[in-house]
Amino acid sequence: MKLLTTITVLFIVMTGALFAEDIEVSGEVVSIDEITDSETDTEVLQARIRVQNRDMIEAHLCPAWYLEEDIAPEDEVTLIGKYGEGGEFKVREIVRNEVRRDIRDELYVPLWLKTQLQSQHHLYNPEDEVQTDGTVEDLYVETNTSIMEAKVKLESGETVRVRLAPDWYLKNQLRIGDEVEFIGDEVEEDGVIMAREVRNLRTNLEIALRTRQGATHWQEKTDRKKAAVPTSSETPGRKKQ
Q1: 150 is a domain residue
Q2: d(CA 4, CA 171)
Q3: 198 CB-contact burial (10 Å; exposed 0-12 / middle 13-18 / buried 19+)
Q4: Which domain range does residue 133 map to?
Q5: 203 vs 235: CA distance, rounded Å
Q6: How confident is the model over 62-91, as pLDDT tens digits?
Q7: pTM of structure
C-alpha cells in the first residue's frame, strides 16, 4: 500500500515533466556515490559524468540492484533525462555497452517502484520449443521483468522478441548486429520467445540460459553466491566443440 501511495503521489507531482523535452548527453563516469532520493526515500546511485564539452553533471540514477550490473568510473554512457529544480540530472534512460535500460517512465515515475509490485512467472514447455536464427537488431532490459531481451530479425524478414537473462549474467556476450541461433519456447500472452540456449555465430559461444524445465541458470549462480560457494571458474558461455 505504501508503494502504491508513493507511485500515485509521484504521478501527480511529475505530470509537468510532459511539458519539457528530454535531453540526451554522453560522457564518461568519473565517480559513483549512493544518496537518498528525497522523492522515493530510497537509496539511489548518483554518478558524476564528464560530458563531451568537459562539463560535469550529477546524474541521479536508481538503486544499484535495479541496474543488474555495476556501473563504474571510466564507463562510457549515454543518458536521456531532464534537469531537476536542484540542478541534478534525472535520468530516464541509460545506454551502456549498446544496452538500453529504462529507469523512469515518460512521467519520470521511478520504474524500480513498479518492479517491486510486479512479479511475472511463465511455465516453460520443452514440447513447444522452436529453433531458429537471425540477426540481433536491438538489446534492451525489459522493465517489467528486469531481464535483457533482444529484437531478432529472422531470415523471413519477421522480427521477434527473445527473452534472455540479466545483463550481468550475459557479460556482454551479445552485440547488436550479431548473427545468432536460439532455442526457446514462445510465451503466447507476451508474444516473446523465452530462450533456453543462444549460440553467437560471431564468437562461436553457446550461452546456456535455462534448463529444459525452465529453471534459470543465473538463479542457480545467485544461490551459490549467497551460500559463499566459490564460482570464479564458472562462466555462462562455453566454446562450441
Answers
A1: yes
A2: 34
A3: buried
A4: 126-239
A5: 15
A6: 888 777 677 889 999 999 999 888 888 999
A7: 0.49
